[in-house]
Amino acid sequence: MPTPTSRIRNFSIIAHIDHGKSTLADRLLERTGAVTEREMREQLLDSMDLERERGITIKAQAVRLTHRAADGQDYVLNLIDTPGHVDFSYEVSRSLAACEGAILLVDAAQGVQAQTLANAYLAIEAGLEIIPVLNKIDLPAADPDARAAEIVSILGGRPEDVLRVSAKTGAGIDELLERIVAEVPAPGGDPDAPLRALVFDSYFDAYRGVVCSIRVFDGVLCSGDVAHFMATAGTHEADEIGVLVPRPKQVSELGPGESGYLITGVKEIDRIRVGDTITHPRRRAETPLAGYAEPKPMVFSGLFPSDGDDFERLREALEKLRLNDASLVWEPETSRALGFGFRVGFLGLLHMEIVRERLEREYDLDLVATAPSVAYRVTTTAGEVREVRSPQDLPPVDERTSLQEPYVKAMVLVPSEFTGTIMELLQQRRGEMDGMHYLTEDRVELTYHVPLAEIVFDFFDTLKSRTRGFASFDYEPADYRESDLVKVDVLLAGDPVDAFSTITHRDKAYEYGRAMAQKLRELIPRQLFDIAIQAAIGSRIIARETVKAQRKDVTAKCYGGDITRKKKLLAKQKEGKKRMKMVGSVEVPQEAFVAALRVDDAS
After folding, report:
1. Cα separations in angstroms, 345 against 15, 57, 120, 359
2. At how many degrees (to 10) do helices 114-125 and 89-96 cross?
3. How far, in Å, are 297, 394, 486 from residue 389 at the CA level?
4. Sheet of 259-263, strands arranged across
5. Bridge partners, 411 (sequence order)
6. CATH for 5-183?
7. Could you tell me which of 208, 305, 403, 443 has the fewest CB atoms within 10 Å of its CB?
8. How is 220-241 classified by DSSP, letter by letter?
9. Burial of 45 per CB tally in 10 Å (0-12, 13-18, 19+)
10. Can you give the pLDDT at residue 368?
11. Which stretches in the chain have pLDDT values below 70?
12. Peptide bond into 246 cis (omega under 30)
């Protein structure tokens, strides 16, 4: 029998990065007896090596807990641990769609941060019941009263209603469990209605095929049932259904309000899509569940295998990763310098870094990534509006009437003493001020409209260094605006190298061209003739460096005698080099490409 909906609570933990979500999840697992003391380890739900190494959550994880409440009844608590970094807010929105309540976790020392606000607004828009919780009250720097006042200024309510816990020591965890049972609404749903279940996550298992994380809203899904996927119109048998406790545990059925996993034995990745609705083929639901808005990639980069023979392996790896990360988009791309690869869209730079690292680790690939770029909007002279994701695709100046770049609405939370510094930084990045709001006497929220291209490189690092680590930052897409943008090409011995091209604002073009030319001069080995490294906008050269020729000592055997003999040999060598220059092309080693692009990435 499925658990009655009155005794089910679905909730997630949302917070800014590093405010203690994973540690709180560990304590809840421990306190409800889901894991024994011997099985317990830190960040238990962060199963990826990458998550454990970096101390961050990348993937949302769902787990089922059983709690005996003060009223003597056993309640099923479905916990979904979500990421906190701005690049993974898409994962958060997917998790919230499967919940009725959310714990808004705030560090008692750091207080409300930009991502706290962003996630709180996501939960409010989703209509969730929010339980405000202050964590890390055991820290010497904790100021619970001031932080509770900050939370109340955002959510309303009374400061005394803000729960105070320490996920590290376990203080306040029992009270939190009682608050979840009392305040998070029980899920709705009719067990006799046609089945409607939402696929809120999935991953690929080499032995079992596609494993879906599902939340049942109406009806009952039994093991052995035939499941119909409404978006892809596929029909597959439910080979196994189960719940995570946190180990997988097979069950015979899942009813309304329950979350679990479904294995259909499907090996073809494109047959199952995150956000799809599952129903029964004979007794179908009339309307699918709302699902999710398609994620819009913000940053694009070319990914090329170092060995051209790995192209198909890279395609397969991207397809498998896409199943686990629905926000990933890509299309094939060819580069004269780097061969065949893919232009991949990411939600941000951390997302790009994580995807690249996962491809290299999990699929044993050696990759070269081109400099990240954003998607520009071009209007051609023929009136066609086109999205340009790569500098190579940009039409020449005489074939376009306008070039627009994406702007984002950026929100920075900062101590008031750094307000002037941050305003100066945002103005340098072509930002336009939208608003300024004091959360407390010493905490300011600044809102700016900034070009996305100005924040995807080193903005976050600069922000942290200028505020001694106290500022926090969040952004969301805003609109497209006309800007004075130019394409900067890098030429080696007169030939453009597409891998180094970029689109940038005219004011920053010289800076980029100069930096790239200087870097390449250090990286390209000397050859038998001078190599000109030039940065150009159209036909105008804006920066130049030269790799001087390597000279063989042709006079080594010519010792003693008249100096004219040496001059004659050198003149002969010079003539030979001139002929080579006419027919020769520059050999750029793969390491130089990798190093130059990595430098650009980090600069």
Report:
1. 26, 21, 27, 15
2. 30
3. 10, 9, 14
4. 234-237, 226-229, 277-279, 196-205, 209-218, 259-263, 240-244, 248-251
5. 447, 474
6. 3.40.50.300
7. 208
8. -EETT-EEEETTTTEEEE--EE
9. buried
10. 79
11. 1-2, 34-61, 81-95, 268-270, 291-295, 323-326, 337, 457, 528-529, 550-561, 573, 575-603
12. yes
The phi-psi region of residue 422 (left if phi > 0; otherwise alpha if psi is between -120 and 50; otherwise beta) is: alpha
CATH class of 377-482: alpha beta
Q: Exposed, middle or buried, 186 (CB in 10 Å: 0-12/13-18/19+)?
A: middle
Contact 21, 45 (CB under 8 A): no
| Two tokens, residue 13 | 């933990």
- Extract the runs of DSSP E, i.e. beta strands, from 327-482: 329-335, 339-346, 367-369, 376-380, 385-388, 400-415, 432-440, 443-451, 472-482
The string over 229-251, giving b where at least 16 C-beta atoms fall within 10 Å of a residue's C-beta and e elsewhere, is: bbeeebebebebbbbbbbeeeeb
Token look-up 């009155």 returns 6
Which residue bears the tokens 């580069």? Answer: 335
Burial (Cβ within 10 Å: 0-12, 13-18, ≥19) of residue 119? buried
Predicted local distance difference test score (pLDDT) of residue 46? 42
DSSP 528: S
User: What does the alpha-carbon distance between residue 370 and residue 300 come to, in Å, rounded to a whole number?
Assistant: 9
d(CA 125, CA 142): 30
Burial 512-522 (b: 16+ CB within 10 A, else e): bbebbbebbee
| pLDDT given for residue 448 in this prediction | 92
CA distance linking residue 517 with residue 535, whole number of Å: 7
Domains 196-279 and 377-482 share a fold: no
Beta bridge partners of 438: 444
Token couple for 479: 């609109």
CA 262 to CA 251: how far, in whole Å? 10
- Residue 387: strand, helix, or coil: strand
The residues near 576 (Cβ < 8 Å, ≥ 6 apart) are none
**Domain locations in the chain as residue ranges:** 5-183, 196-279, 299-372, 377-482, 487-602
**CATH fold of the domain at 487-602:** Alpha-Beta Plaits (3.30.70)
- pTM value surpassing 0.85: no
For 210, the enclosing helix (H) or strand (E) is strand 209-218
Q: Where do we find the tokens 């999840």?
A: 25
CA distance 480 to 20: 36
Per DSSP, the three-state class of 194 is coil
Which residue type, as a one-letter code, is found at position 433? M
Q: What is the pLDDT of residue 469?
A: 72
CB 409 within 8 A of CB 117: no
In CATH terms, the superfamily for domain 196-279 is Translation factors (2.40.30.10)
247: Cα separation from own chain's centroid: 27
Residue positions counted in the chain:
603
What are the tokens at 179? 């608050």
Residue 373: DSSP 8-state: B
Residue 391's pLDDT is what? Answer: 82
